[in-house]
Amino acid sequence: MRVLRVFFLGVLFGWLMKWIIDEVYMKEELRFITDENLRLKERIQSMEVKSVRRVTPAPAAVPAPAPAEESSRKDDLRLIKGIGPQSEKKLNNAGIDTFAQLSRLTTTDLRNILGLSKRATQNADNLITQAKKFAQQKTRNK
Description:
By secondary structure, the chain is mainly alpha-helical. Helices cover 68% and strands 0% of the residues. It starts with a helix and ends with a helix.
């Protein structure tokens, strides 16, 4: 009977010690992970600030409009899927008011004006393609 008591007390004591050691170790490990996460967040934020400064060049020179095909009226650039009010404002500030002007931009020019990332090249190509279609429809309707 005494042997069973010693055995169970030993098991209980072992479990208690394991729980205490795990608790202390896990808290220390979680503190280390939390500190590491904070350092990484700070590093990422500092890298984002640097990359935003480097990636956002001044808007590129926009090709001069061809006077024969341009009308003096502005087009509603928001008809192009993917251009909202903010993008339209950026384009207008860069001197792009019509579909024809937008269709003559290069992908790089459009990315610089809108501030798109390099991964958004396909989106920029899509916007230019849509602008070409709208410009063709506009010239047909005249």
